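Lab manual, section 2.4: Encoding a predicted structure.

Procedure: take the sequence of the chain (410 residues), apply the prediction step described in section 2.3, and record the output as structure tokens. A sample record is shown.
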Amino acid sequence: MRDAYVYDAVRTPFGRYGGALAGVRPDDLAAFVVGEQVRRAPALDPAAIDDVILGNANGAGEENRDVARMAVLLAGLPLSVPGATVNRLCGSSLEAAVQAARAVETGDADVVVAGGVESMSRAPWVLPKPSRPFPAGDAALVSTTLGWRLVNPRMAPDWTVSLGEATERLREKRGVSRERQDAFALRSHVLAARAWEEGCYDDLVTPYPGTDLRHDEAIRPDTTLEKLAALAPSFRDDGTVTAGNASPLSDGASAALIGSERAAALTGLEPLARVAGRATVAGEPQYFGAAPVEAVHRALERSGIGWEDVGAVELNEAFAAQSLVCADAWGLDDHAAFLDSPIRDVQILNGWGGAVALGHPLGASGTRVLGTLARRLQASGARWGVAALCIGVGQGTAVVLENVTEKRAA
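Recorded output:
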């Protein structure tokens, strides 16, 4: 088995629902990041790309019919370049990266573009076909933006609660307070704003042509604990999950270049990180938010390292509550002082902010956290890092990266 490496990563700024990217088709977003990832590899002959694998959670609108292959065509890549689309909901693009790494490791590929896309603004309404011809009654349109739709009646009711209600149940079970959730949300915004100001995202984010969006649109650097505390609960009258301590509906696309050792010569790039291990787990659908806990434990074990070796963690912040549940279970203590001071000098967990501030376009978030992790390892000099996401319907996924830029420097 060969090693697989992350050579580069790029994404669009993430736009708010109905915001700056709402007018852009998801297949165009996907084509842009695929083309941009190829352009950033100075020696790469596009015909040498073995595959393009993209994640997408909805697939019900303009991105239907295999958006990865559509992106290849729209990006102007050679017709010989294939494309496959995968769906593991919020983990879709990390699944794409895992499949790309497996292809490299087995010798089936040397260069693969992996990534994902989602336009939650443009996700369509769908209308189910009637069970008999010429029905006399009305029919309701169903939104495909987020969560369950057209639910099979054989599903257990506890499994099909909304993502927000599921998070309320999880925070009740694990004792996560509203105050901690709001403090975590504030931290996400402050760290994201700082990371942008310090240029951390300059090499990771490329604006979509023809738009004015240069930074992630949902970041609120001026928010405060008082403002967050004033927001009403979104899912229960007596609940704690609000629009302020949950990730916003978003639009965007991301990509990563995954390759073998030979890909350095093919692309003209040096690898950033080695894919050292991965794991995907599943459990009770209503407690999906805690699934990354076990996924990371297994990925670390398969990588031959422990938590004492980890220098950076990128956890997709679907909700502040589920992020805190995971951080508590992992024994990460760099979030313990949030209530008193949201900023610390060393931030292992989401040191450049997270999805509560940056946004969460479902199919794009996996390679967003993977690319950010690779660049954080490079910037900090830490050797090992973990990228992880919770996934609706009870799944969690994680990838361990080893920083190889430090090895070359040594």
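Check your result against the sample. The longest helix spans residues 178-197.
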